[in-house]
Amino acid sequence: MHMQLVNSYRIPFTTLISYIPVIATVVTCFFSVILARATLRYVEATDKGLALAREEFEREWSPDIHIKMERVSASEARIIATNLAKTSVLLQLLQLRKLSHAVPFERFRLNDPLVGGMTWSQEMGKRILACTGEEFEGPIAASMTFYAAGRMYRTDWFRAQITVRDGRITSLEPSTMPARRVRQIERDGPERRREFAQDVSADAGPDESGANADESAFAAEA
Q: Residue 49's beta-bridge partner residues?
């Protein structure tokens, strides 16, 4: 009776041989899942490393212009632009306005290179007085448009508190720094793309019609 029970549980050798591919497939799937999870973890770690490297690169090489207005005399004031980044830029347009008005009062076209870590200054007393008038007390703001790495950027508005009495600048002190960094000027449509995407190192100079189109584009971006 005992031998018959043992013989009833005995598995044929051929059946055991047929189960070997199934067992191998299960083991292969198990190790494939482990390998896939390890690959996903490696990809996530690589993506994080690339993101950190990209952020560090942007911090070091992204353009960053700081603008300061200071009083020189009763009739003169100076605007100082400092390139805080490593990359060199080409200054294109300086804009001045009162904060109570959305449209800039004064626009001063430039074509001056500014190397990283260096400063640029210009006497702007007459233009500031033209913006404020004979009598004014309150904030004014300045913004700079510039080329960097073949793209056009514009800084936020840097503010300063100014007091003008009888056409004389009695005080001019920087008040706040902008909370945002420089922004790349968006290009909508083929016309503006052609104006703002020009290579600054191109040999061909713009013609008169191109200059007028560029001026209107600057006015639209202000």
A: none
Q: 96-133 as b/e, with b when 16 or more CB fall inside 10 Å? A: bbbeeeeebbbbeebeeebeeeeebeeebbebbbebbe
Query: Please, which pLDDT band fits residue 10 given cuts at 50, 70 and 90?
Result: low
Helix (DSSP H) and strand (DSSP E) numbers for the chain: 5, 10
Taking residues 184-191, report their average pLDDT: 57
Question: Do residues 16 and 94 both lie within one domain?
Answer: no
Looking at 11, 33, 61, the residue that finishes a domain is 61
Query: Are the beta carbons of 83 and 118 closer than 8 angstroms?
Result: yes
Instruction: For residue 204, tell me if it sits in a domain.
Output: no
| Sign of the four-CA dihedral 85, 90, 93, 96 | positive
